[in-house]
Each structure stands twice: as structure tokens, then as C-alpha cells.
Amino acid sequence: MKKNTIIFIILFFIGLVLNFQNLKPAENVGNDWKKLDSSCYKEKTLIIEHEDIDAYKKLLKHYKLYMNGKFDASSCFYYAFIMATKYEYFPANYDVYLSLIKPYGTVNSLDKNTKRLAVFFLYRGMNRGDKRCKKIFESIQRNLNK
User: Are 37 and 24 in contact (CB under 8 A)?
Assistant: First the structure.
């Protein structure tokens, strides 16, 4: 039994070493592929502590790449929320809105409080000059006035 366990552990580590390059997602940079840190710890730290807009954009790009182009907006809610509220980065308001509605499809599918929060971030982004927020906010207003 002990011999089988040791053999299993050795084979596990051999498989891990042979397949190590496939564990991290890749980012296309020009003509060559660059490996990303799968946890993006550096980018997340830069966003939280230093208002690093480039790190925020790289994190969004990482999530898009990791999801094979199908952006899971809810994965970046925390960082979008921080960039929108703490650092006043106006495009992040739209990302917060997307993070809230994406799992449900439309803003009308949300519960009352989440809907208010989503519309609040749209309104906030619109007031700070984000055209995407303005377009969606006006669309929601038209639907309410019908």
C-alpha cells in the first residue's frame, strides 16, 4: 500500500511537470504568446492599492481571454466597484453595471435593490461622461415611460 502511494505521488508530479505550461492562460502579445499569472495577483494589488488603470484593463482582458472571449463580467465586480467608487474611474461604472446584470440577462430580471444599484451606476457613469452608460440609461427610461 505504501509503495503504491509513493508511485502515485511520483507519477502525479511527473504529470504536473509535463503539463505545467498548460496550467496558465496565454495572452497574445504581437506575434508571440505571453503567459499570464492565472491569479493576476499583481494586477489586483495594483488596482486596489495604487489606482492602476493599466492593471485594471489588463485584468479585464485576462478575464475575457480566460473565458475564451465570453466575458464573465461578474468575475470583475469587486475591482470595477473599487475603480468606480474609490478612484472615480468613470468607465468602471459601466463594468459594475455589466457585472450586476450579466448573470440575469437584463436589468428587468433583477430584484428591486440590485436593479437600483445597477441603474445608479449607469446614472453615475452617464454623469461622468460615459456614452455607453448614457445610451443604456436613456433606453431604460424610454421603456419605463411606455
Answer: yes
**Grid cell locating 17:** 511537470
CA 63/CA 110 separation, integer angstroms = 23
Q: Spell out the SS3 assignment of 8-74.
A: HHHHHHHHHHHCHHHCCCEEEECCEEEECCCCCHHHHHHHHHHCCHHHHHHHHHHHHHHCCCCCCHH
| Average pLDDT value for the chain | 81
Q: What is the DSSP letter of 91?
A: H
N-term to C-term CA, the chain = 73
Q: How far apart are CA 109 and CA 100, in angstroms?
A: 11
pLDDT of residue 75: 78
The pLDDT of residue 29 is above 60: no
Q: What cell was used for 72?
A: 464573465
**Model pLDDT, residue 84:** 95
